[in-house]
Amino acid sequence: MKLLVTGCAGFIGSNFVYYLRKYKDSFIVGLDKLTYAGNLENLSKLIDEEKQRFVFIRGDINNNELLNHIFEKYNIDVVVNFAAESHVDRSIFEPHVFIKTNVLGVQSLLSVAMEHWFRGDKWLEGKRFIQISTDEVYGSLGPEGYFSENTPLDPHSPYSASKAGGDLIAKAYYDTFQMPVIITRCSNNYGPYQFPEKLIPLMIWNALNHKELPVYGDGKNIRDWLYVEDHCKAIDLVIEKGKIGEVYNIGGHNERENIYVVKKIIEILRRKTGDDKINEDLIKFVKDRPGHDRRYAMDPTKIQTELGWKHTYSFEEGLEITIDWYLNNLDWVRNTISGEYLKFYEKNYLGR
Question: What is the dihedral of CA 302, 310, 228, 62, to 10 degrees?
């Protein structure tokens, strides 16, 4: 199987590429534009060790000429589209950037895939287009209930609206052309390689440096947390067993208030480092962001019953593993923030 994994240098994309290493007969083309959140250090082991099974290409999913070259050269069977602008705060200030990647980029990928997979009047066998989406397209929940695959889309930020737009474009290609599209929507991911602007890695980094831990509003916003390896397992099952044209929600049933997450990080870091300066005095409540959804919670019944998926890690177990990873990879955080690995890659790899 030959896979095109877009956004491969990002948090979830890089974890998924590493997850695929267990399949010795797979060949992976990784495509990433390398914006601020695309970190080539995430892929350093693959670049150095998996030259026969992995190739990295720096590029934009809006570049149809490049996409056509990739499909022609590597005869792609499966597209897994992680490529996305994903930070809600940034979308408020730069919505046009999110629309370009999350809507127009999806359409570019779909059109090029269709050009190469549709022959005569039928689709080639074994092709799959997996559109990776988010629970945020559903909007905000009250204190009860869960998002199901039939929940109407109700996005509240430029980010979630752009992701909903990409989903609808993908759905339209299935409805209109019967293209082999499957959409997955996941809850909040956490784990290794997450860019330090997101809640968990930001709190870890700030706490280790005795900086303020900013918490929006009253800290009572609730998210359903999913350890990234569990998400990778779910996507793998969707590729193998998922029904064309369907949507699958992927959630961890690990709902926690933001303030609980922050306090738990403090507790674990104090225990692991013995640093008394890491304490709740670092917490600072700040003005809530516009359109901040109160609660997300996913119902994963469909993917559990139809595909046999179940999550492995509780939130507390996954958080312990995540914090251990960051404590053992502080140079990664520094290099990520400064972009040092990209500079190294451009000097030593690009152009060869």
Answer: -30
- The rounded percent of the chain whose pLDDT value lies above 90 is 75
CATH number at residue 77: 3.40.50.720
Say how far apart CA 115 and CA 302 lie, in whole Å: 31
110 φ/ψ angles, rounded to the nearest 5 degrees: -65, -45
Residue 185 belongs to domain spanning: 2-192+226-254+292-313+340-348
Amino acid identity for residue 43 in this structure: L
Residue 273 DSSP code: H
The whole model's pTM is what? 0.91
Torsion angle defined by CA atoms of residues 337, 34, 139 and 304, in that order, rounded to the nearest 10 degrees: -100
| Contact by Cβ (8 Å): 310, 304 | yes
Distances from the Cα of 185 to the Cα of 36, 46, 100, 137, 336, angstroms: 24, 27, 20, 9, 27
Q: Which residues are catalytic?
A: 135-136, 159
Q: How many domains does the chain have?
A: 1
In tens, the pLDDT along 153-181 reads 999 999 999 999 999 999 999 999 999 99
Mean pLDDT of the chain: 92
| Contact (Cβ atoms closer than 8 angstroms) between residue 31 and residue 82 | no
Judge whether 212 and 284 are in contact, CB under 8 Å.
yes
**Whole-angstrom distance, CA of residue 291 vs CA of residue 95:** 14
Nearest-angstrom CA–CA distance, 204 and 196: 9
- Tell me if 213 sits within 8 A of 207, measured CB to CB: yes
Contact assessment for residue 39 and residue 342, using Cβ atoms and an 8 Å cutoff: yes
Confirm if 149 and 252 have CB atoms less than 8 A apart: no
